[in-house]
Amino acid sequence: MQNDKLSLFWLGHAQEKTELEEQRVALVGEVQSYRTKIKQLEDDLLFRLSNSQARRPGDWPPASSYSATHAKDWPSVSS
Q: Per-residue pLDDT for 79 more than 50?
């Protein structure tokens, strides 16, 4: 009887370990795909910035539209 319980315990443990390893592998793959996407976005942004004609950060349309639409989200700084 004791051996049966021990065998069931180890069988359940092995199955759980296998499932966790499968989840770990899936998450590692997902993280890698996110890293690849971030790298692509960074490269695209750097390419756009290097080819823009803007002289000041405020001259770039996305920066000015961001500050106009999201300025209310930033806390004010009091001196």
A: no
